[in-house]
Design goal:
It is built from 2 helices and no strands. The protein is globular and about 30 Å long. The protein has one domain (1-55). With 55 residues, it is mainly alpha-helical. The two termini are 18 Å apart. The protein has helices at 8-15, 19-34.
């Protein structure tokens, strides 16, 4: 299992939409802790860093 950290700037961005959207975003981020490479993810091209490899 991985640890997903939400930085303060990202937290502010997440808090702007309605609560229903916030819950969906937080659920998706929490799911990344269990499976950081979900089947629906796609590999990015022309990226140099590991952090930018998947979206």
């Amino acid at each position: 299992m991985y640890l997903v950290e939400i930085r303060p700037k990202a937290r502010k961005y997440i808090e702007k939409p309605p609560r229903t959207v916030q819950r969906r975003v937080l659920a998706a981020l929490t799911a990344l802790a269990d499976d950081p490479y979900p089947p629906a993810s796609s590999r990015l091209t022309n990226r140099d860093t590991v952090a930018a490899t998947y979206r």
